[in-house]
Amino acid sequence: MTKRPALLFPPLFLLSACAVGPNYERPKVAPPPAFRGAEGAAQQASLADLPWWQVFKDDRLTELVKTALTNNYDLQIAVSRVEQARQLAAQARSQYFPQIGYDAHLSAGQNQFISGPALSNSGSQGFFLALATASWEADLWGRIRRLNEAAKAQYLGTEEARRGVMLSLVSDVSNAYYSLLGLQRQLEIALETVNSFDQTRMLFTQRLEGGVSSQLPVSRATAVQATAAGQALELQRQIAITENQISVLLGQNPGAIETRAKLLESTVPPDVPAGLPSALMERRPDIREAEQNIRAANAQIGVATAEFFPKIGLTTFFGKLSTPLEDVSLGRTNAWSVGMNMTGPIFQGGNLKANKRHAVAAWEEAKLHYQQTALNAFQDVSNALISREKYDGIRNEQAKAVTSYEEAFRLASMRYDQGFSSYYEVLEAQQLLYPAEQALALTEINRRLVIIQLYKALGGGWNLTDAQFTSAGLPSTTPRGTAPNPTP
Protein backbone atom coordinates (compact mmCIF):
# COMPACT_ATOMS: atom_id res chain seq x y z
CA MET A 1 0.00 0.00 0.00
CA THR A 2 1.40 3.39 -1.00
CA LYS A 3 1.52 6.01 1.73
CA ARG A 4 0.27 9.42 0.75
CA PRO A 5 2.88 12.17 0.96
CA ALA A 6 0.77 14.16 3.42
CA LEU A 7 1.38 11.47 6.03
CA LEU A 8 5.13 11.93 5.74
CA PHE A 9 5.06 15.64 6.66
CA PRO A 10 6.14 16.42 10.21
CA PRO A 11 3.54 18.16 12.36
CA LEU A 12 5.36 21.41 11.71
CA PHE A 13 2.22 23.46 11.33
CA LEU A 14 0.85 22.37 14.69
CA LEU A 15 3.71 23.99 16.58
CA SER A 16 2.98 27.06 18.64
CA ALA A 17 4.60 29.84 16.66
CA CYS A 18 5.69 33.21 17.90
CA ALA A 19 5.21 36.56 16.22
CA VAL A 20 8.48 38.29 15.45
CA GLY A 21 8.87 42.00 15.96
CA PRO A 22 8.20 44.18 19.02
CA ASN A 23 4.98 43.91 20.96
CA TYR A 24 3.08 47.18 21.26
CA GLU A 25 3.64 49.45 24.23
CA ARG A 26 2.05 52.88 24.55
CA PRO A 27 4.68 55.63 24.32
CA LYS A 28 5.17 57.60 27.49
CA VAL A 29 3.62 61.05 27.71
CA ALA A 30 3.97 63.12 30.87
CA PRO A 31 0.67 64.97 31.35
CA PRO A 32 0.70 67.99 33.65
CA PRO A 33 -0.84 67.47 37.11
CA ALA A 34 -3.52 70.04 36.24
CA PHE A 35 -4.44 72.19 33.28
CA ARG A 36 -3.01 75.67 33.33
CA GLY A 37 -5.89 78.07 33.76
CA ALA A 38 -8.11 75.59 35.62
CA GLU A 39 -9.78 76.93 38.73
CA GLY A 40 -9.30 75.01 41.97
CA ALA A 41 -7.82 71.56 42.42
CA ALA A 42 -7.95 69.07 39.57
CA GLN A 43 -11.03 66.86 39.70
CA GLN A 44 -12.35 63.86 37.80
CA ALA A 45 -15.51 65.61 36.59
CA SER A 46 -15.20 67.27 33.20
CA LEU A 47 -17.27 69.42 30.89
CA ALA A 48 -16.65 66.66 28.33
CA ASP A 49 -18.88 64.34 30.38
CA LEU A 50 -21.92 66.37 29.33
CA PRO A 51 -23.70 65.49 26.08
CA TRP A 52 -23.24 68.23 23.50
CA TRP A 53 -26.90 69.32 23.55
CA GLN A 54 -26.63 70.20 27.24
CA VAL A 55 -23.65 72.53 26.89
CA PHE A 56 -25.89 75.26 25.47
CA LYS A 57 -29.53 74.41 25.93
CA ASP A 58 -30.75 75.78 22.62
CA ASP A 59 -33.38 73.75 20.79
CA ARG A 60 -32.67 75.40 17.45
CA LEU A 61 -28.95 74.64 17.70
CA THR A 62 -29.76 71.03 18.59
CA GLU A 63 -31.89 70.76 15.45
CA LEU A 64 -29.08 72.15 13.30
CA VAL A 65 -26.44 69.84 14.75
CA LYS A 66 -28.64 66.76 14.35
CA THR A 67 -29.24 67.67 10.71
CA ALA A 68 -25.51 68.12 10.16
CA LEU A 69 -24.72 64.75 11.76
CA THR A 70 -27.12 63.17 9.29
CA ASN A 71 -26.33 65.02 6.07
CA ASN A 72 -22.81 66.47 6.30
CA TYR A 73 -20.59 65.27 3.47
CA ASP A 74 -17.33 65.34 5.44
CA LEU A 75 -18.86 62.92 7.94
CA GLN A 76 -20.13 60.68 5.14
CA ILE A 77 -16.62 60.65 3.66
CA ALA A 78 -15.23 59.62 7.06
CA VAL A 79 -17.80 56.80 7.24
CA SER A 80 -16.70 55.63 3.78
CA ARG A 81 -13.09 55.56 4.95
CA VAL A 82 -14.09 53.42 7.91
CA GLU A 83 -15.75 50.94 5.55
CA GLN A 84 -12.65 50.86 3.36
CA ALA A 85 -10.47 50.11 6.38
CA ARG A 86 -12.94 47.45 7.53
CA GLN A 87 -12.66 45.63 4.23
CA LEU A 88 -8.86 45.91 4.20
CA ALA A 89 -8.89 44.29 7.64
CA ALA A 90 -11.12 41.52 6.26
CA GLN A 91 -8.63 41.00 3.43
CA ALA A 92 -5.80 40.65 5.94
CA ARG A 93 -7.85 38.19 8.02
CA SER A 94 -8.49 36.01 4.96
CA GLN A 95 -4.80 35.07 4.89
CA TYR A 96 -5.36 32.88 7.94
CA PHE A 97 -7.43 30.47 5.83
CA PRO A 98 -6.58 28.14 2.94
CA GLN A 99 -6.96 29.69 -0.49
CA ILE A 100 -9.12 27.29 -2.54
CA GLY A 101 -9.67 27.60 -6.26
CA TYR A 102 -10.16 25.62 -9.44
CA ASP A 103 -8.60 25.23 -12.86
CA ALA A 104 -10.32 23.72 -15.90
CA HIS A 105 -9.37 23.35 -19.58
CA LEU A 106 -11.12 21.57 -22.42
CA SER A 107 -9.91 21.46 -26.03
CA ALA A 108 -10.10 19.25 -29.14
CA GLY A 109 -7.49 18.85 -31.90
CA GLN A 110 -4.43 16.92 -32.96
CA ASN A 111 -0.80 17.34 -31.93
CA GLN A 112 -1.82 19.94 -29.35
CA PHE A 113 -1.57 20.41 -25.61
CA ILE A 114 -4.10 22.72 -24.01
CA SER A 115 -4.13 25.60 -26.51
CA GLY A 116 -0.65 25.26 -28.02
CA PRO A 117 0.94 22.90 -30.55
CA ALA A 118 2.82 19.86 -29.23
CA LEU A 119 4.10 16.66 -30.85
CA SER A 120 2.05 13.72 -29.64
CA ASN A 121 0.81 10.35 -30.88
CA SER A 122 -0.99 10.67 -34.16
CA GLY A 123 -4.11 9.25 -32.66
CA SER A 124 -4.19 11.53 -29.66
CA GLN A 125 -6.80 14.20 -29.97
CA GLY A 126 -8.16 16.67 -27.41
CA PHE A 127 -7.27 17.64 -23.86
CA PHE A 128 -9.20 17.81 -20.60
CA LEU A 129 -8.09 19.24 -17.28
CA ALA A 130 -10.25 19.85 -14.18
CA LEU A 131 -8.55 20.46 -10.84
CA ALA A 132 -9.47 21.81 -7.43
CA THR A 133 -6.49 23.56 -5.86
CA ALA A 134 -5.71 24.70 -2.34
CA SER A 135 -2.79 26.45 -0.69
CA TRP A 136 -2.12 27.59 2.84
CA GLU A 137 0.72 29.45 4.53
CA ALA A 138 1.80 28.42 8.00
CA ASP A 139 2.17 31.58 10.02
CA LEU A 140 5.25 30.37 11.89
CA TRP A 141 6.81 33.78 12.35
CA GLY A 142 3.62 35.77 12.87
CA ARG A 143 3.75 37.69 9.58
CA ILE A 144 0.04 37.23 8.98
CA ARG A 145 -0.77 38.01 12.60
CA ARG A 146 1.20 41.24 12.39
CA LEU A 147 -0.54 42.13 9.14
CA ASN A 148 -3.88 41.61 10.87
CA GLU A 149 -2.75 43.61 13.89
CA ALA A 150 -1.79 46.51 11.62
CA ALA A 151 -5.01 46.30 9.59
CA LYS A 152 -7.17 46.24 12.72
CA ALA A 153 -5.32 49.23 14.19
CA GLN A 154 -5.79 51.16 10.95
CA TYR A 155 -9.48 50.28 10.99
CA LEU A 156 -9.88 51.45 14.59
CA GLY A 157 -7.90 54.56 13.70
CA THR A 158 -10.46 55.44 11.03
CA GLU A 159 -13.21 54.89 13.61
CA GLU A 160 -11.53 57.40 15.90
CA ALA A 161 -11.10 59.78 12.97
CA ARG A 162 -14.83 59.46 12.28
CA ARG A 163 -15.62 60.28 15.91
CA GLY A 164 -13.29 63.24 15.59
CA VAL A 165 -15.21 64.46 12.54
CA MET A 166 -18.46 64.13 14.50
CA LEU A 167 -17.07 66.20 17.38
CA SER A 168 -15.61 68.76 14.98
CA LEU A 169 -18.95 68.97 13.21
CA VAL A 170 -20.77 69.71 16.47
CA SER A 171 -18.15 72.34 17.24
CA ASP A 172 -18.22 73.92 13.77
CA VAL A 173 -22.02 74.18 13.65
CA SER A 174 -22.14 75.60 17.18
CA ASN A 175 -19.37 78.09 16.42
CA ALA A 176 -21.10 79.25 13.26
CA TYR A 177 -24.47 79.43 15.02
CA TYR A 178 -23.23 81.65 17.86
CA SER A 179 -21.18 83.70 15.43
CA LEU A 180 -24.43 84.26 13.52
CA LEU A 181 -26.25 85.32 16.69
CA GLY A 182 -23.36 87.63 17.48
CA LEU A 183 -23.37 89.20 14.03
CA GLN A 184 -27.10 89.74 14.32
CA ARG A 185 -26.51 91.48 17.65
CA GLN A 186 -23.76 93.62 16.11
CA LEU A 187 -26.10 94.50 13.24
CA GLU A 188 -28.75 95.62 15.73
CA ILE A 189 -26.19 97.90 17.37
CA ALA A 190 -25.08 99.22 13.99
CA LEU A 191 -28.65 100.00 12.89
CA GLU A 192 -29.42 101.66 16.22
CA THR A 193 -26.25 103.71 15.82
CA VAL A 194 -27.18 104.69 12.25
CA ASN A 195 -30.55 105.86 13.54
CA SER A 196 -28.91 107.77 16.40
CA PHE A 197 -26.45 109.49 14.06
CA ASP A 198 -29.34 110.31 11.73
CA GLN A 199 -31.24 112.00 14.57
CA THR A 200 -28.13 113.98 15.44
CA ARG A 201 -27.71 114.99 11.80
CA MET A 202 -31.36 116.14 11.68
CA LEU A 203 -30.82 118.17 14.85
CA PHE A 204 -27.76 119.88 13.37
CA THR A 205 -29.68 120.49 10.12
CA GLN A 206 -32.52 122.17 11.99
CA ARG A 207 -30.07 124.43 13.79
CA LEU A 208 -28.41 125.23 10.48
CA GLU A 209 -31.75 126.13 8.94
CA GLY A 210 -32.55 128.23 11.99
CA GLY A 211 -29.35 130.19 11.47
CA VAL A 212 -27.79 129.19 14.82
CA SER A 213 -25.24 126.75 13.47
CA SER A 214 -22.94 126.18 10.52
CA GLN A 215 -22.63 123.53 7.81
CA LEU A 216 -19.67 121.90 9.57
CA PRO A 217 -21.60 119.91 12.21
CA VAL A 218 -24.09 118.79 9.55
CA SER A 219 -21.25 117.49 7.34
CA ARG A 220 -19.56 115.75 10.28
CA ALA A 221 -22.81 114.10 11.38
CA THR A 222 -23.56 113.01 7.80
CA ALA A 223 -20.10 111.45 7.50
CA VAL A 224 -20.30 109.43 10.69
CA GLN A 225 -23.85 108.34 9.83
CA ALA A 226 -22.70 107.10 6.41
CA THR A 227 -19.75 105.30 8.00
CA ALA A 228 -22.04 103.47 10.41
CA ALA A 229 -24.42 102.60 7.54
CA GLY A 230 -21.50 101.12 5.60
CA GLN A 231 -20.51 99.01 8.61
CA ALA A 232 -24.10 97.77 8.86
CA LEU A 233 -23.91 96.61 5.24
CA GLU A 234 -20.63 94.82 6.00
CA LEU A 235 -22.29 93.01 8.90
CA GLN A 236 -25.13 91.97 6.61
CA ARG A 237 -22.53 90.53 4.23
CA GLN A 238 -20.91 88.56 7.05
CA ILE A 239 -24.32 87.29 8.20
CA ALA A 240 -25.10 85.94 4.73
CA ILE A 241 -21.68 84.25 4.49
CA THR A 242 -22.11 82.67 7.93
CA GLU A 243 -25.57 81.40 6.95
CA ASN A 244 -24.04 79.86 3.82
CA GLN A 245 -21.37 78.23 5.98
CA ILE A 246 -24.00 76.67 8.23
CA SER A 247 -26.02 75.50 5.22
CA VAL A 248 -23.02 73.67 3.76
CA LEU A 249 -22.29 72.07 7.14
CA LEU A 250 -25.89 70.84 7.08
CA GLY A 251 -25.32 69.32 3.64
CA GLN A 252 -27.67 71.85 2.04
CA ASN A 253 -27.42 74.49 -0.64
CA PRO A 254 -26.47 77.97 0.65
CA GLY A 255 -29.45 79.78 2.10
CA ALA A 256 -30.89 81.68 5.05
CA ILE A 257 -30.79 80.10 8.50
CA GLU A 258 -33.64 80.60 10.93
CA THR A 259 -32.64 81.62 14.45
CA ARG A 260 -35.08 81.86 17.31
CA ALA A 261 -32.89 83.14 20.11
CA LYS A 262 -30.81 86.27 20.52
CA LEU A 263 -27.18 86.27 21.60
CA LEU A 264 -27.77 87.72 25.04
CA GLU A 265 -30.63 85.29 25.70
CA SER A 266 -28.26 82.31 25.53
CA THR A 267 -26.62 81.76 28.89
CA VAL A 268 -22.98 80.81 29.35
CA PRO A 269 -22.46 77.69 31.53
CA PRO A 270 -21.27 78.93 34.91
CA ASP A 271 -19.25 75.83 35.77
CA VAL A 272 -16.86 74.31 33.22
CA PRO A 273 -14.58 71.79 35.00
CA ALA A 274 -11.71 70.58 32.84
CA GLY A 275 -11.10 67.23 34.52
CA LEU A 276 -7.76 65.45 34.80
CA PRO A 277 -5.13 65.87 32.08
CA SER A 278 -4.39 62.14 32.21
CA ALA A 279 -8.02 61.38 31.30
CA LEU A 280 -7.68 63.51 28.17
CA MET A 281 -5.43 60.80 26.68
CA GLU A 282 -8.36 58.41 26.69
CA ARG A 283 -11.01 60.82 25.44
CA ARG A 284 -9.69 62.95 22.59
CA PRO A 285 -10.44 61.23 19.26
CA ASP A 286 -7.30 62.62 17.61
CA ILE A 287 -5.08 61.24 20.40
CA ARG A 288 -6.78 57.85 20.20
CA GLU A 289 -6.39 57.86 16.41
CA ALA A 290 -2.70 58.74 16.74
CA GLU A 291 -2.24 55.82 19.15
CA GLN A 292 -3.85 53.39 16.71
CA ASN A 293 -1.45 54.65 14.04
CA ILE A 294 1.47 53.80 16.36
CA ARG A 295 0.02 50.33 16.90
CA ALA A 296 -0.24 49.80 13.15
CA ALA A 297 3.30 51.07 12.57
CA ASN A 298 4.59 48.82 15.36
CA ALA A 299 2.96 45.78 13.75
CA GLN A 300 4.52 46.67 10.38
CA ILE A 301 7.95 46.27 11.99
CA GLY A 302 6.97 42.67 12.73
CA VAL A 303 5.82 42.20 9.13
CA ALA A 304 9.15 43.52 7.84
CA THR A 305 11.06 41.29 10.29
CA ALA A 306 9.15 38.18 9.18
CA GLU A 307 10.31 38.74 5.60
CA PHE A 308 13.80 37.60 6.69
CA PHE A 309 12.43 34.12 7.45
CA PRO A 310 11.23 31.44 5.06
CA LYS A 311 7.57 31.14 4.15
CA ILE A 312 6.34 27.56 4.61
CA GLY A 313 3.04 26.29 3.37
CA LEU A 314 0.99 23.45 1.94
CA THR A 315 -0.24 23.07 -1.61
CA THR A 316 -2.62 20.47 -2.99
CA PHE A 317 -4.77 19.70 -5.99
CA PHE A 318 -7.21 16.96 -7.01
CA GLY A 319 -9.02 16.35 -10.25
CA LYS A 320 -8.91 14.79 -13.74
CA LEU A 321 -6.26 15.06 -16.47
CA SER A 322 -6.80 13.28 -19.77
CA THR A 323 -5.48 13.29 -23.32
CA PRO A 324 -7.03 12.02 -25.47
CA LEU A 325 -10.50 13.04 -24.37
CA GLU A 326 -11.96 9.54 -24.58
CA ASP A 327 -9.80 8.38 -21.66
CA VAL A 328 -11.35 10.87 -19.24
CA SER A 329 -13.56 8.25 -17.63
CA LEU A 330 -10.69 5.90 -16.84
CA GLY A 331 -9.30 5.69 -13.33
CA ARG A 332 -5.77 6.36 -14.49
CA THR A 333 -6.68 9.94 -15.42
CA ASN A 334 -7.18 10.91 -11.78
CA ALA A 335 -4.71 13.54 -10.63
CA TRP A 336 -3.87 14.61 -7.11
CA SER A 337 -0.99 16.03 -5.13
CA VAL A 338 -0.19 17.11 -1.60
CA GLY A 339 3.04 18.97 -1.04
CA MET A 340 4.91 21.40 1.15
CA ASN A 341 6.75 24.41 -0.16
CA MET A 342 9.31 26.71 1.42
CA THR A 343 10.57 29.98 -0.01
CA GLY A 344 12.96 32.45 1.52
CA PRO A 345 15.53 35.13 0.75
CA ILE A 346 19.26 34.55 0.36
CA PHE A 347 20.55 37.79 -1.12
CA GLN A 348 18.48 40.84 -2.04
CA GLY A 349 21.05 43.59 -2.00
CA GLY A 350 19.91 45.10 1.32
CA ASN A 351 16.26 45.34 0.33
CA LEU A 352 14.95 43.56 3.43
CA LYS A 353 17.12 45.58 5.81
CA ALA A 354 16.02 48.82 4.18
CA ASN A 355 12.38 47.71 4.40
CA LYS A 356 12.71 47.06 8.13
CA ARG A 357 14.53 50.33 8.73
CA HIS A 358 11.75 52.10 6.87
CA ALA A 359 9.18 50.44 9.15
CA VAL A 360 11.14 51.47 12.24
CA ALA A 361 11.37 55.07 10.99
CA ALA A 362 7.62 55.09 10.28
CA TRP A 363 7.01 53.88 13.84
CA GLU A 364 9.24 56.64 15.20
CA GLU A 365 7.28 59.22 13.20
CA ALA A 366 3.96 57.84 14.48
CA LYS A 367 5.25 57.93 18.06
CA LEU A 368 6.39 61.54 17.76
CA HIS A 369 3.07 62.49 16.15
CA TYR A 370 1.23 60.89 19.06
CA GLN A 371 3.30 62.79 21.61
CA GLN A 372 2.88 66.05 19.72
CA THR A 373 -0.89 65.48 19.44
CA ALA A 374 -1.11 64.97 23.20
CA LEU A 375 0.94 68.11 23.83
CA ASN A 376 -1.28 70.12 21.49
CA ALA A 377 -4.32 68.79 23.33
CA PHE A 378 -3.00 70.07 26.68
CA GLN A 379 -2.36 73.43 25.02
CA ASP A 380 -5.87 73.58 23.52
CA VAL A 381 -7.48 72.99 26.90
CA SER A 382 -5.24 75.48 28.69
CA ASN A 383 -5.82 78.16 26.05
CA ALA A 384 -9.58 77.74 26.31
CA LEU A 385 -9.55 77.86 30.12
CA ILE A 386 -7.40 80.98 30.21
CA SER A 387 -9.47 82.66 27.50
CA ARG A 388 -12.70 81.91 29.35
CA GLU A 389 -11.40 83.49 32.54
CA LYS A 390 -10.06 86.57 30.76
CA TYR A 391 -13.17 87.02 28.60
CA ASP A 392 -15.29 87.20 31.74
CA GLY A 393 -13.08 89.98 33.10
CA ILE A 394 -12.96 91.76 29.74
CA ARG A 395 -16.74 91.63 29.50
CA ASN A 396 -17.14 93.26 32.92
CA GLU A 397 -14.79 96.11 32.03
CA GLN A 398 -16.36 96.67 28.62
CA ALA A 399 -19.83 96.76 30.18
CA LYS A 400 -18.60 99.53 32.48
CA ALA A 401 -17.22 101.41 29.48
CA VAL A 402 -20.49 101.13 27.55
CA THR A 403 -22.47 102.38 30.55
CA SER A 404 -20.12 105.32 30.96
CA TYR A 405 -20.22 106.22 27.25
CA GLU A 406 -24.03 106.06 27.25
CA GLU A 407 -24.10 108.46 30.18
CA ALA A 408 -21.55 110.71 28.48
CA PHE A 409 -23.65 110.85 25.31
CA ARG A 410 -26.78 111.66 27.29
CA LEU A 411 -25.06 114.47 29.15
CA ALA A 412 -23.41 115.85 26.00
CA SER A 413 -26.76 115.93 24.19
CA MET A 414 -28.36 117.70 27.14
CA ARG A 415 -25.55 120.25 27.34
CA TYR A 416 -25.76 120.85 23.58
CA ASP A 417 -29.50 121.46 23.74
CA GLN A 418 -28.91 123.97 26.53
CA GLY A 419 -26.11 125.67 24.64
CA PHE A 420 -23.36 124.72 27.14
CA SER A 421 -21.29 122.55 24.75
CA SER A 422 -20.43 122.30 21.08
CA TYR A 423 -21.56 119.72 18.54
CA TYR A 424 -18.11 118.17 18.79
CA GLU A 425 -18.83 116.77 22.26
CA VAL A 426 -22.02 115.11 21.02
CA LEU A 427 -20.36 113.49 18.00
CA GLU A 428 -17.35 112.42 20.03
CA ALA A 429 -19.56 110.73 22.62
CA GLN A 430 -21.48 108.93 19.89
CA GLN A 431 -18.34 107.88 18.08
CA LEU A 432 -16.86 106.43 21.27
CA LEU A 433 -20.08 104.65 22.25
CA TYR A 434 -20.51 102.73 19.00
CA PRO A 435 -17.16 100.83 18.99
CA ALA A 436 -17.52 100.17 22.72
CA GLU A 437 -20.92 98.52 22.13
CA GLN A 438 -19.48 96.49 19.22
CA ALA A 439 -16.52 95.39 21.31
CA LEU A 440 -18.84 94.26 24.09
CA ALA A 441 -20.95 92.30 21.60
CA LEU A 442 -17.79 90.63 20.20
CA THR A 443 -16.71 89.64 23.71
CA GLU A 444 -20.16 88.17 24.35
CA ILE A 445 -19.67 86.07 21.21
CA ASN A 446 -16.21 84.96 22.34
CA ARG A 447 -17.48 84.01 25.80
CA ARG A 448 -19.74 81.44 24.13
CA LEU A 449 -17.32 80.30 21.46
CA VAL A 450 -14.62 79.58 24.02
CA ILE A 451 -16.95 77.14 25.81
CA ILE A 452 -17.40 75.29 22.52
CA GLN A 453 -13.65 75.29 21.99
CA LEU A 454 -13.11 73.90 25.49
CA TYR A 455 -15.73 71.20 24.96
CA LYS A 456 -14.02 70.11 21.74
CA ALA A 457 -10.55 70.31 23.31
CA LEU A 458 -11.67 68.01 26.14
CA GLY A 459 -13.06 65.41 23.72
CA GLY A 460 -16.66 66.26 24.56
CA GLY A 461 -19.23 63.50 24.34
CA TRP A 462 -16.56 60.81 24.70
CA ASN A 463 -18.93 58.62 26.75
CA LEU A 464 -21.79 58.73 24.21
CA THR A 465 -22.51 55.94 21.80
CA ASP A 466 -22.89 56.80 18.13
CA ALA A 467 -26.67 56.50 18.43
CA GLN A 468 -26.77 58.88 21.38
CA PHE A 469 -24.37 61.31 19.72
CA THR A 470 -26.31 61.61 16.48
CA SER A 471 -29.83 61.56 17.90
CA ALA A 472 -29.28 63.79 20.95
CA GLY A 473 -30.09 61.30 23.66
CA LEU A 474 -31.44 58.09 22.16
CA PRO A 475 -31.23 55.38 24.85
CA SER A 476 -28.50 52.82 24.33
CA THR A 477 -27.56 49.49 25.88
CA THR A 478 -23.91 50.57 26.07
CA PRO A 479 -23.10 51.61 29.67
CA ARG A 480 -22.25 55.24 30.32
CA GLY A 481 -18.53 55.82 30.06
CA THR A 482 -17.90 52.71 27.98
CA ALA A 483 -16.09 53.56 24.80
CA PRO A 484 -17.15 51.07 22.13
CA ASN A 485 -14.26 49.31 20.38
CA PRO A 486 -15.63 47.75 17.21
CA THR A 487 -13.64 44.92 15.68
CA PRO A 488 -13.41 44.25 11.97
Task: Give structural notes.
- With 488 residues, this protein is an alpha+beta fold.
- It folds into two domains: 31-96 and 141-306 and 354-464, Up-down Bundle (Outer membrane efflux proteins (OEP)); 99-138 and 310-343, Outer membrane efflux proteins (OEP).
- The protein has nine helices and six strands.
- The protein has helices at 59-71, 73-94, 143-209, 215-249, 277-283, 285-306, 351-417, 423-457, 466-471; strands at residues 99-110, 112-113, 116-117, 125-138, 311-322, 334-343.
- Strands 1-4-5-6 form a four-stranded antiparallel β-sheet, with no helix packed on it.
- α1 (59-71) packs across α3, α4 (215-249) packs parallel to α8 and α6 (285-306) runs antiparallel to α7 (351-417).
- Mean pLDDT is 86; it is low at 1-16 and 476-488.
Helix content: 55-70%
Strand order of the largest sheet: 1-4-5-6
Strand content: 5-15%
Please provide the ordered H/E string of secondary-structure elements: HHEEEEHHHHEEHHH
Low-pLDDT segments, ≥5 res:
1-16, 476-488
Overall 3D form: elongated
Q: What characterizes the major β-sheet?
A: 4 strands, antiparallel
* Total beta-strand segments: 6
Helix segment tally: 9
In CATH terms, what is the architecture of the largest domain?
Up-down Bundle
Kindly name the structural category: alpha+beta
Q: What is the CATH superfamily of the largest domain?
A: Outer membrane efflux proteins (OEP)
Integer-rounded radius of gyration: 37 Å
Mean pLDDT: 86
Subunit organisation of the chains: single chain
